[in-house]
Amino acid sequence: MNIEQYMIDLGQQARAASRQLLRADTNMKNSALLAIAELIEAQAETLQAENAKDLQAGKENGLDAAMLDRLALTDGVIAGMAEGLRQIAGLQDPVGEISDMSFRPSGIQVGKMRVPLGVVGIIYESRPNVTVDAAALCLKSGNAAILRGGSEAKFSNQALAKCIAAGLEKAGLPATAVQVLETTDREAVGHLIAMPEYVDVIIPRGGKGLIERISQGARVPVIKHLDGICHVYIDVDANEQKALDVAFNAKTHRYGVCNAMETLLVAESRAQEILPKLAELYATKEVELRGCEKTCAIIDAKAATEDDWATEYLAPILSIRVVTDVDAAMDHIAQFSSGHTESIITENFSTSRRFLAEVDSSSVMVNASTRFADGFEYGLGAEIGISTDKFHARGPVGLEGLTSQKYIVLGDGTIRK
Amino acid sequence: MNIEQYMIDLGQQARAASRQLLRADTNMKNSALLAIAELIEAQAETLQAENAKDLQAGKENGLDAAMLDRLALTDGVIAGMAEGLRQIAGLQDPVGEISDMSFRPSGIQVGKMRVPLGVVGIIYESRPNVTVDAAALCLKSGNAAILRGGSEAKFSNQALAKCIAAGLEKAGLPATAVQVLETTDREAVGHLIAMPEYVDVIIPRGGKGLIERISQGARVPVIKHLDGICHVYIDVDANEQKALDVAFNAKTHRYGVCNAMETLLVAESRAQEILPKLAELYATKEVELRGCEKTCAIIDAKAATEDDWATEYLAPILSIRVVTDVDAAMDHIAQFSSGHTESIITENFSTSRRFLAEVDSSSVMVNASTRFADGFEYGLGAEIGISTDKFHARGPVGLEGLTSQKYIVLGDGTIRK
Hints:
The structure is a homodimer. The first copy, chain A, has helices at 3-21, 26-42, 44-60, 65-71, 75-90, 129-140, 154-170, 186-192, 208-217, 240-252, 268-284, 293-298, 306-309, 326-336, 349-358, and strands at residues 98-103, 109-116, 119-124, 144-148, 178-180, 201-205, 230-234, 261-267, 288-291, 302-303, 317-323, 341-345, 363-368, 385-387, 395-397, 403-414. By secondary structure, the first copy, chain A, is of the alpha/beta class. Chain A has 2 domains: 3-223, Aldehyde Dehydrogenase, Chain A, domain 1, CATH 3.40.605.10; 230-372, Aldehyde Dehydrogenase, Chain A, domain 2 (3-Layer(aba) Sandwich). In chain A, the strands form 4 sheets. In chain A, strands 10-9-11-8-7-12-13 form a 7-stranded parallel sheet, sandwiched between helices. In chain A, strands 5-4-3-6 form a 4-stranded parallel sheet, with helices on both faces. Chains A and B meet through strand 2, helix 10, helix 15, strand 13 and strand 16 of A and strand 2, helix 10, helix 15, strand 13 and strand 16 of B. Strand 16 (403-414) of chain A pairs parallel with strand 13 (363-368) of chain B. Chains A, B: Belongs to the gamma-glutamyl phosphate reductase family.
């Protein structure tokens, strides 16, 4: 197999399919999504037989229990994929939305139309259900997709790809609107991220190593997030109960997620009162505390090192720093945050306004848990990832993040004088 | 001078200034813009003395008359810069705009806030007035700017930089909010476009060679447009007079601009009627016509080669192709357009809807001249460039294109269940 030529073919087919998708109305796209859901349910046995090959290989290659768990297409996962497809079919179609049409003195009427990005390349790791989820989001937003799953899931992904292709054709759409790479050779990824003529954006979904590698090599825009080093700052004017509730929830609701709090900042004037109560709460969950000098003088905690402020633990570990005020808190955040999500606990109106305006992260919150930073919680109805970039999409990326706006101009033979 | 260290210093200062700009309200930014306008007017003589050095060097280096003309800070250019600053001060401030705030079942209230991108790097060629224009747009949109002008204008740019710095300080803003490179060494550009930790976006303004070089080497997002190969398609259902008016205006209103028509497409059933009349009009302006075989059978034109369809003439030259219908026209556009601006001339409602939805360019028009694709004509009040990319900003880029939106979440001690 000549991988370069294979990728060029894929790219050309995707580009051609993306033009056909511009002609597909909402009904056609929804019909395809519903047809894929039915096919996945009808072919559950086949899918699970293919999945068994991946699971067998995974065991032989020594994948750990957690990885095998993510890889498994259980009845529940299959039902979940079908349900997800039906939910996405139910979402409002962002494509074609026209806004801000206004007349100009020259006589033209100008505004914006929301349009697909074109061709989206998605590179992801072991979970095979991402294949269906990513295909559905791209299709609904009118984009052709090129999907590259992990080698651990290759049989499962190819079986799912067949359901997707059959569903697309049933709805009268080109099967090439969603293409799943048949090779898991790394060289293919190298081409995929460097074909701006065929691919408009790359979305890597996976660990930090994968995302860094993709970002370094990409010759097309990348929607990515590297780290989730999220902060909660308990302000001078915080309500104690709200501070305890949010600081506990943001750390302990789930540990291995990007929107969990990793560093707690506490205003010096409130530390003596609040830290001991928080330490008691965290002890019930066996959260390891690492504190600055002032923190360690108040509660029992390990001494935090400079590295702690820059670490995404994804674990029951929390670093705590006592700061003088909101300015010091925002300085700390500017230095160490990954730009994902930060929350302030305060009853002070003006302090909250400053925090909202001056903290440069994709989600900025007042009196709310960082755990809310999520496409479903925000009402997007779906999420393809969370962007910590500032360009294009920022924060949870739903259907709208997979679209762009072009200008449209209507006239009556109008010419420029 | 250690250029790498110099650029890192510049970048760190810009990043710090961008944080201070997040704290600057609209009044402070407008005060700075008005102060800069006054300083430029008051120091016209100094500016022209410095400009004379550039003009003298330009003559010695053999710059042609057109380039010297662009370089000159005449009284008119100085008045224009001051006027431009006052206009930008008068525009609505996009920063801080909050939209779509809605309550979710969880109890949080979520929406979006418009925020600056952060630090904008702008690389441009000889016109020194771009220094002021770019600084003003970045400042109003709350971004710190690093500007790198052409070596031909180095004395003029440094003199303007002093006015800008003084105006910023007068308004209580950091002088480092706008930094003009003191070196025109190419190595500096190499660093500027590869410092994602300090620079959020690069905007190259200049010839295609410059833009391609920047795009190839950039490690940060680039807002760019390479070519303006714009099309007008005269449809089967075109009104003859509108077709003649728009096709004539789009080509002959100005030649050296990116939104001029370069290729005319004509539906076969209308070619016999319309082409001779158009040829007569173009003859009055001595526009050279290059046609496909069918065109040459109807009017007197040179035979067009395949290269003609892919060429931005920026000159009184027009390529003409007879096509069967709107589908063939859109196929031609998909193959050869640079994604800038295309217009259809038609009275057919359904054909116009298809053209608007299916043509993948930054501006798509019906019965209007491509010459309208311009930030001022669209009512943006200013324009830093026209983007032919699909990601982030598309089409004319005004203040809004220099901003992004982050999510804001308001709660009442709200936690995720």
